[in-house]
Specification:
Layout: E1 4-7, H1 10-16, E2 26-32, E3 42-45, E4 48-54, E5 74-79, E6 84-85, E7 96-102, H2 104-107, H3 111-115, E8 130-132, H4 134-151, H5 159-184, H6 186-205, H7 217-224, H8 228-239, H9 243-261, H10 266-272, H11 278-289, H12 293-301
Parallel strand pairs: 1-3
Antiparallel strand pairs: 2-7, 3-6, 4-5, 4-7, 5-8
Helix pairs in contact: 4-5, 6-9, 7-8, 9-12
């Protein structure tokens, strides 16, 4: 792995990128020229960082997973503390764009502190970035300018509240735009769901549920070459289910098929599909179908 520049504080970030420190825990920096030319392969920050990469600049270096069905006016990457970022070659940051930095201590006890976990894109891989239209890019730049304007105001008792609310608004727009991206990626997500279905069907057919061990989020995400959090969000958007709920639905469908097509006894189905007991399986089956497993088997066979 190449050299990594480890930036510990917001002030150090400002110094490295040629910007003044207006607040010790937050900064908005316009990227360009010398700010991206330091000879490092990647950078990591000990605070939250949002990158807006301007793709309209000549020789844009980074697409961060952008496909032909994505917008291409700008790209956003969200870095949680200690998460590394780098571009191809020796450039660690884009030659044109914005950088928003805010330290976890800034948001402590604020409304953003309580909602930060809902902005799951901070856990996405860098190649699962957000790709913006021109209109969306303009809105995000407007939010960044509002944050920057407040940072230029002398620090007082209102500063932290106003700054964090502006950051929260920016992140809310990003959440909206990510959901829009799930829509524009609908065809690709359908392919992912088909691959997931084949994976789970194979897992069940191979009898791997017999010991009650469900496929994990990490296992499914790895199979699809996605980060765990991005996989969970795509699955929820596409099916409305968590991984556990999705596998449970597939397991129940397999149980119905075994009873109807293979004529298996309820005890055999319960054992093969990893239900705790035949009694538990029978109660669950009757609650969902209105009939006991034995009745269902007879009805389908007749």
């Amino acid at each position: 792995m190449g050299k990594i520049l480890d930036i510990k504080t917001v002030h150090q970030c400002n110094c490295c990128l040629g910007s003044k420190t207006l607040h010790p825990q937050a900064s908005v920096i316009r990227l360009g020229g010398d700010s991206a030319s330091m000879q490092q392969h990647s950078v990591k920050f000990d605070f939250y960082t949002v990158l807006l990469i301007d793709n309209s600049s000549r020789g844009c270096e980074c697409c961060c997973g952008r496909k032909h069905y994505d917008f291409s006016d700008a790209t956003m990457v969200f870095l949680s503390p200690e998460k590394a970022f780098g571009l191809a070659g020796d450039r660690m940051l884009p030659s044109s764009g914005w950088l928003l930095a805010f330290h976890p201590d800034l948001i402590y006890g604020t409304s953003l502190d309580h909602t930060l976990c809902s902005y799951t894109f901070f856990s996405y891989d860098n190649d699962e970035a957000l790709h913006l239209s021109l209109r969306e890019k303009s809105k995000i730049e407007s939010c960044l300018e509002n944050i920057d304007e407040e940072l230029h105001h002398p620090i007082d008792t209102y500063s932290r509240t106003i700054i964090t609310r502006h950051i929260e608004l920016l992140l809310d727009y990003c959440k909206r735009y990510y959901e829009r991206q799930f829509v524009t990626r609908e065809d690709e997500n359908d392919v992912l769901m088909c691959r997931l279905e084949r994976f789970i069907d194979g897992y069940i057919e191979q009898g791997k549920l017999a010991h009650g061990v469900f496929p994990t989020v990490e296992m499914c995400a790895g199979y699809l070459h996605l980060s765990p959090q991005y996989f969970k969000d795509v699955l929820k958007f596409s099916t409305g289910k968590t991984v556990r709920e999705y596998v449970e639905a597939k397991r129940f469908a397999a149980a119905k098929q075994m009873l109807a097509m293979q004529g298996c006894a309820a005890s055999q189905v319960a054992t093969q599909l990893g239900y705790p007991s035949v009694q538990c399986f029978s109660v669950m089956f009757k609650r969902l179908t209105g009939v006991a497993p034995q009745e269902y088997r007879l009805l389908r066979n007749n």
